[in-house]
Amino acid sequence: MTPTQRDIDLEMAAHRAAYERGRASGGPAVDHPPRDYPPYRSSALRHPTRPLVAVAGDPEAVELHGPVFGHTDVSPLDADLTGQHGGEPQGARITVTGRLLDRAGRPVAGQLVEIWQANAAGRYAHRLDRHPAPLDPHFTGAGRALTGPDGSYHFTTVQPGAYPWRNHDNAWRPAHIHFSVFGTAFTQRLVTQMYFPGDPLLAHDPVLRSVVDDDARRRLVATYDHALSRPEWSLGYRWDIVLDGPRATWAEEGR
Amino acid sequence: MTGGSAALPPTPSQTIGPFFGHALPFAGGGDLAPAAHPGAVTVHGRVHDGAGAPVPDAIVELWQNGPEGRPPRAPGSLARRDGDLAQEFTGFGRVATDAEGRWSARTLRPGARAGRAPQVSVCVFARGLLHHLFTRLYFPDDPAALAADPLLASLDPARRATLVATAEPLGPAPRYRFDIHLQGEKETVFLDFRDFRDFRDFR
């Protein structure tokens, strides 16, 4: 009754094949996951079934701007998830760095990046996470930063663990870090997840594989960058984020 | 959708998942306006799934014009100094739904430019929702403005009604109810901005 991993793998392969057939016959590339993706069972009752209404001609000005953040919204300590509780957390220390860009490749400066993740054992510091893996008194797993003038962000944290979930029998989420980012326009809002290269669970995860385009899915996987690793301290990963959606141009025109 | 000749492909969306509660909600996230503000109004509602069940693991973000009708430019959108009437209005709020799918925020009525009805831009995230959804909460007080609003005018009456909050004449301060239905007969109108490009003329 409960689907097995193999059942889910077959469903995911069928969705990917249908997409590839569409591409071969001239269909458009699709960057974002469909909101209706049956292998991810929780999407069944939580996606709209009517088409979205296009605001093509005339968005509100407020939609083309976004909330403004500043130094009162973050402290430098917020970007080091290993330094928030007076002791070193368990696990392998990593740094994650990258740039926040718009689709024209321009840096998105001064915007808020928030991350959250499980600890090294695969447990969230969240009251509803009942996975019987240890909590870590030295790790909450939540961080914030503002992007620099070049759009860059930097976090120090620990490598999160994989963890089980109940989508299907013996379902495991690959290790990931959740990201929430703002652009200069509210329409550029993005919440997503960053994955780690070489994780064998990437092939079996219906959340990641809801992104049916192979190239788009690869963009959710960080790159291990040895130049970012620090001797006897931390392993370095790089992950750039490109925001979708329109934005206003008047801010850069001096208004 | 690509917008320019050298367009970079975007980073795909992923679900917010169930375990954002220790990270995204912030103190006073629903208090866009202090309680003592004479113009404060409450907006609230429930998030429902396609079976009509409450969605207890959703985040509702609000972003709106100030009362004078322009997007706020004051920095510090996560900072709240409750009771400080001099604090600048940042126009941003974020609330998680409770176990019964309810959310609530206190704000100021947004201003609107001529020909538009006052509205709050709403972004919904949830476990099970792979890509956030945008909608608009319109205030019901000015029927002429609602009738003239181009988005509302383009919708049939039943669909249009999903975007207009209901005034609740209870208590001393105005309250407006705005339920969000992710799916089903009462499904909320959700918006797509991605076909829009190069918007430069709204000054």
UniProtKB/TrEMBL annotation, chain A:
The entry's keywords: Dioxygenase, Oxidoreductase
Matches recorded under PROSITE patterns: INTRADIOL_DIOXYGENAS (PS00083)
Record bears the keyword Oxidoreductase: yes
EC number(s) recorded for this UniProt protein: 1.13.11.3
Cross-referenced SUPFAM superfamilies: Aromatic compound dioxygenase (SSF49482)
A Gene Ontology biological process term: 3,4-dihydroxybenzoate catabolic process
Enzyme class name: oxidoreductase
Domain Intradiol ring-cleavage dioxygenases residue range list: 96-124
An annotated Gene Ontology molecular function: protocatechuate 3,4-dioxygenase activity
Family statement drawn from the similarity comment of this UniProt entry: Belongs to the intradiol ring-cleavage dioxygenase family.
PANTHER family: DIOXYGENASE, PUTATIVE (AFU_ORTHOLOGUE AFUA_2G02910)-RELATED, INTRADIOL RING-CLEAVAGE DIOXYGENASES DOMAIN-CONTAINING PROTEIN
Name the record gives this protein: Protocatechuate 3,4-dioxygenase subunit beta
Organism of provenance: Streptomyces radicis
UniProtKB/TrEMBL annotation, chain B:
Pfam families for this protein: Dioxygenase_C
GO molecular function term, any single one: protocatechuate 3,4-dioxygenase activity
Keyword Oxidoreductase: yes
InterPro entries in UniProt: Intradiol_dOase_C (IPR000627), Intradiol_dOase_core (IPR015889), Intradiol_RC_Dioxygenase (IPR050770), Protocat_dOase_a (IPR012786)
Primary enzyme class: oxidoreductase
Annotated keywords: Dioxygenase, Oxidoreductase
Enzyme Commission designation: 1.13.11.3
Coiled coil start-end: none
Intradiol ring-cleavage dioxygenases domain residues: 40-184
SUPFAM superfamilies in UniProt: Aromatic compound dioxygenase
Family affiliation: Belongs to the intradiol ring-cleavage dioxygenase family.
Protein name (record): Protocatechuate 3,4-dioxygenase subunit alpha
Native source species: Streptomyces radicis
Gene name, Swiss-Prot/TrEMBL: pcaG
